[in-house]
Amino acid sequence: MMQANHWIGGRWLDNGDALGHTLNPADNTLVGYYALGSQELADQAIDVARSVFESGQWCTKPRLRAQVLLDYADRLAERQNELTDLIVQESGKLHSEAQGEVLGCISECRYYAGLARTIMGRSTELDTGQWVSFTREAAGVVAIIVPWNAPATLLIRSLAPALAAGCTVVVKPAPQTANVNRVMMECLAAVTGLPAGVVNSVNENGIEVGQRLSVHPDVDVISFTGASSTGAAIMAASAGTLKRLSLELGGKAPTLVASDANLDIAIPQIARHATIIAGQMCTAITRVIVDPSRFQETAERLRDALAAIRTGRGDDPQSTMGALIDTRSRDRLMGSLDLARRDGEIWLQGRTFDSGPLAKGNFLTPTLMQIQDVKHELIQEELFGPVLNIECAADEADMLTRANATRYGLAASVWTESVRRAQHWTRRIRSGSVWVNAHNRLAAETETGGFKHSGLGRLHGMQGLDDFLETKTVYFAED
Question: Which of 79, 138, 225, 237 could share a disulfide with 59, CB 3.0–4.6 Å?
């Protein structure tokens, strides 16, 4: 049986019999074990990362960092099939979703390998004999707190720029996907040029390790992806040590369907991106805001498209949506559906499986509901599941008002044939990413991040380096 141990200072460590376990969401069977972390292990990993950073053997060698990232990409490519299967087992997502995740990791590593060699400063002459240079230097020790819904991608999108910048790292993986993280660390350990202690990984034990990373004075940066409430707690805990924070938090992504939208293109994509990872993605579509002239047609066609989704095991090639992460999430969402029936209209009722091959898993089919009151908790709160709300707007102005009506601002999309309308709407929507006639188009080269309660900083792209770099001003004066 698999066991994920801690990786500290280039060595694998365990805690003897202190073990947690991971379950397959498709049937709640045992996948593997992981060694439980502790405050002491977190301190040990931080001390190692600090010592390696201060030695300069990593942060001053951009060509080495680039080569390590390229070699890491190759190691991931060698084990991509194993990683894909393990992601399916521990997260419950579709094989195609897991495969795309691993390929995205490989791409991200290679992208930041290129940027590692192009981190440049600038200089200026203030006056005769007065020169100032501005250098970009690694920020220090980074703690990366990884969620379970995309355990490979959401590790690499912080780890790759942190390494490219010259930082050293302590990773805290999600307990639900601890063995995915184990393989990610094994691939890194196989890179011969990586100095021991540049990257360390400590498994969680409740909230003990995460809390320690948040308050430890030798952690300079925290990169966290997860719920807004947890992000706020990290911000509060880290305030005493004035850490830099890179936070991608909750989302409530709206999609706007204009009067001229091509529904033949829009409907399949809306259905797909509302149910991606069973709706457990911070950029998944959760609200469909429709021009009144197209509402009835959109609602009927979207209902039919969602009804056609085949919920099933991630390793079944016939499945088009996988499982929720655990039974608690499924039961929580079922409670939300009770509230939707009370306060709104149900176009399509989600259901669980009480019998048959899916009965032991955490499955819930898609729901399409209609709640018009934008202040309702089901519109305001992130549900994190295959539950979609459709809203009939009064007019275009009301569509934009509704799009901005929550405290989130991570992602949105618009569907229109008018370039002018697309330009106007994308400017008015308060969101870090807005797609036109598409949704969830993510790439290593394109920055993502949130407005409002959806986070701080940017990940991916050239700006993805910024949270892991400091700017130093150096003044030169002639004698």
Answer: 138
